[in-house]
Design a protein that fits this description.
Shape: globular
Oligomer: single chain
Number of strands: 5
Order of helices and strands: HEHHEEEHHEH
Distance between the termini: 35 Å
Helix content: 40-55%
Strand order of the largest sheet: 2-1-3-4-5
Structural class: alpha+beta
Radius of gyration: 13 Å
Length: 126
Amino acid sequence: MTGQRDEQCSAAPLTTILCSGSDCAKEERAAYRALSACLHDVGASIVKSKCLDVCHGPVVVVTDADGRATVIEKIRTKERRKQLAEAIVSGRPDEVVRGASVVAKGKRRSKALRKAGRVAGRELTA
């Protein structure tokens, strides 16, 4: 089983930056733990971040190898976690947007991308 997880981790072209701020990790504790477990189960590449200032948690920034990123909030239901996991496994960030609460253009998204970019070690664009 560990070998399969290693293969999935290396094959996943998307990186998920998981907000660990108080609104995401503490106030939505059950949803945050379920999301984290779901991402680990599919072998997603996960980077935990300090607060991304979106504050409608749990919040994830999904980024591809080219630095294109999508900020997704309110991943609280089993269905949304499943959609996110499937998109990450398939490596298709456009599928992540389907049915999710994507943070629209504006200051919140820009700030979240800037903070997530610092954690990822590269500049992220929408």
